[in-house]
Amino acid sequence: MIPDEKFIKNPNIPGPTKEEIRCLVMCKSQVRPDDIVVDIGSGTGGLTVEFAKRAKMVYTVDKNPEAIEITKSNLEIHEVKNKVQIIQDTAPEALFDIPNFDILMIGGSSGELPSIIKEGYKKLKDGGRILITSILIETRAEAVKTLLSFGLTPDVVDVSISKGRIMERGTMMIANNPITIISATKLK
Q1: pLDDT at position 78, please?
Q2: DSSP state, 63?
Q3: What is the largest CA-CA distance in the chain?
Q4: Quick one: average pLDDT of 83-94?
Q5: Residue 156 reports pLDDT greater than 90
Q6: Averaged confidence pLDDT in the chain
Q7: By CB count within 10 A, which of 62, 108, 160, 184 is most buried?
């Protein structure tokens, strides 16, 4: 995994997804070298970069022009821009033009999660994986409900990571925002 400090950041754009969460997402995705990945809501591109280092091709989608620019910069410094197609659009619309894929990663949905899952499910290959990361309780519930409506069995993992800060007297643990990773596999 790439350390957090190796990513270009922008205070106006979320991310990058913390290193430990990126690690868990890569594990849950079961990404393989021949996989095609779609990353919705790329933010600064942390997960896009990690997927690009492991997959055949990544389509990354974000509607925010600032997010697109910072993702481009991170792809360049991590030398994976040739494996990524960047799409500036809303997710449901962008999914219409993307070919079938193996992994759908949803990190941001702008309140359109059910329609993103619906459109993504249509293009997801049999045996393909859907992953959703969520910081909001409402998004977690919506993700599980939507996945169940497609006959999928969601795996829900809630993660709380604390990092140690060395101080004069000892190590103080500082908690990061809890995040939930919801994943499911499309049956063959």
Answers
A1: 97
A2: S
A3: 56
A4: 94
A5: yes
A6: 95
A7: 62
| Tokens at 26, concatenated | 């890569």
Tokens of 97: 């033009």
Cα–Cα–Cα angle for 179, 182, 188, rounded to 5 degrees: 160
Domain of 25? 16-185
**Which of 58, 67, 68 is closest to 29 using CA atoms?**
58
Look up the CATH number of the domain holding residue 53.
3.40.50.150
- pLDDT computed for residue 111 by the predictor: 87
Cα–Cα distance between 91 and 160 in angstroms, integer?
A: 28
Domain tally for the chain?
A: 1
- Chain centroid to CA 107: how far? 4
Angle between helices 65-77 and 46-54 in degrees, nearest 10: 40
Q: Are 66 and 12 in contact (CB under 8 A)?
A: yes
Q: Would you say the pTM of this structure is higher than 0.70?
A: yes
Q: Can you read off the two tokens belonging to residue 127? A: 């045996």
Residue 35 lies in a domain: yes
Task: Give residue 82's region: left, alpha or beta (phi > 0; psi -120 to 50).
Answer: alpha
